[in-house]
Specification:
binds dinuclear copper ion
């Protein structure tokens, strides 16, 4: 390829990528878990309507400007051995008035719906009797309290299909931000303040959420899930969460207590009286799909990995297992030998804890 032609191929490649994006945007499928442009609730749709309007307007401007530019490049290019400058023009009042007014009109066209959308989002929920959930961001997990049901859970929110959910979002340590990209706009979780966010989930399924304000070393590992169920299944879930645990599980409670886990985690109650313990409430942890704030599937192998060495899974996690001094994978037994601290949880104890937690449903 000649040196002259190389930049042309670069431009052609850029245009090809842009063209694919243009085609993909309106007609594509939601390939990404956490995408804002495939909204699933009233709240997210409203944001998307503004976004789409701005997208199409700016696309039209882009095509118009680039089209005129390309037209001018070809129409007024130097031909043959032409060397004289073309006729020079300075100032054109009509044109200047036009593009000043056109810009003002365009800004207004985009401003009014944006302002209306902000008012819509900041206002009260559109339906009476929303399901209220109090959200507390913590380093690095999410605590959820359902006042109507007097129910505490962590990292996984279960809601009924079709009922507006009103979140009261706060934090207990540093600033976090609560965000389910396909369901609604972000709301900062600020210590000492409570901010509302509502949306009405209409589609069944599991949707991913993410802390979106840098909050320390494991910020990127502060995830959550929302599970939208039909009303009857939601009622069953609430009843299960409120039910006393399996008496057979009690056998494992002694190990849980003796290992120090009860200093931060509650496994016997999940009502208001046990809100804001240091760690997530674990009373019904076996009913959750994920552990460690949405980063591991809730399987016995992953529970063992997590309890054995939390620091390996989530740097700076507050879970103070002695094995935290280990930096690599492996059982605490092997880890203890490596770092010679000698007082971490023996492998057999971890197995007993995993068995106990797996029964909490
Ligand atoms: Cu919590 Cu970032």
């Amino acid at each position: 390829m000649s040196e002259k032609r190389a930049p042309l191929f670069g431009f052609a490649a850029i245009f090809a990528v842009l063209a694919v994006l243009w085609i993909w945007y309106p007609f594509g499928t939601p390939l990404l878990f956490q995408s804002t442009i495939f909204p699933l609730t009233d709240n997210a749709e409203r944001t998307q309507s503004v976004y789409a309007m701005v997208y199409w307007i700016t696309l039209a401007i882009f095509l118009g400007v680039e089209g005129l530019l390309i037209f001018a490049l070809f129409r007024f290019r130097a031909r043959g051995d032409e060397t004289a400058l073309p006729k020079q023009t300075h100032g054109h009042t009509a044109l200047e008035v036009f593009w000043t007014l056109a810009t003002v009109v365009l800004v207004l066209v985009m401003y009014v719906p944006s302002f209306q959308a902000i008012r819509f989002h900041q206002g009260p929920p559109p339906t009476p009797n929303p399901l209220v959930i109090d959200v507390t961001g913590r380093q690095w997990f999410w605590e959820f309290y359902y006042p109507e049901q007097d129910l505490t859970t962590a990292n996984e929110i279960v809601v009924p299909q079709g009922r507006t959910v009103l979140f009261h979002v706060t934090a207990s340590d540093v600033i976090h931000s609560f965000w389910f990209p396909r369901l609604g706009g972000k709301r900062d979780a600020v210590p000492g303040r409570t901010q509302p966010l509502w949306f009405t989930p209409t589609e069944l399924g599991n949707f991913h959420g993410q802390c979106t304000e840098y909050c320390g070393s494991s910020h990127a590992l502060m995830k959550m899930e929302i599970v939208v169920k039909p009303q009857a299944e939601f009622d069953t879930w609430v009843a299960q969460q409120k039910a006393p645990g399996d008496p057979a599980a009690m056998a494992g409670f002694g190990v849980f207590a003796a290992s120090g886990c009860i200093a931060c985690h509650m496994t016997m109650q999940n009502d208001k009286s046990v809100l804001h313990m240091n760690g997530p409430n674990l009373m019904k942890v076996a009913t959750r799909a994920k552990i460690a704030a949405g980063i591991l599937d809730n399987t016995p192998a992953n529970l063992k990995l997590w309890i054995s060495n939390p620091q390996h899974v989530k740097p700076d996690a507050k879970m103070n297992v002695p094995a935290m001094q280990c930096t690599g994978p492996g059982t605490p037994d092997a880890c203890c030998r490596d770092v010679q601290i000698g007082n971490c949880l023996p492998d057999a104890t971890v197995d007993q804890l995993v068995a106990y937690l797996s029964m909490l449903k």
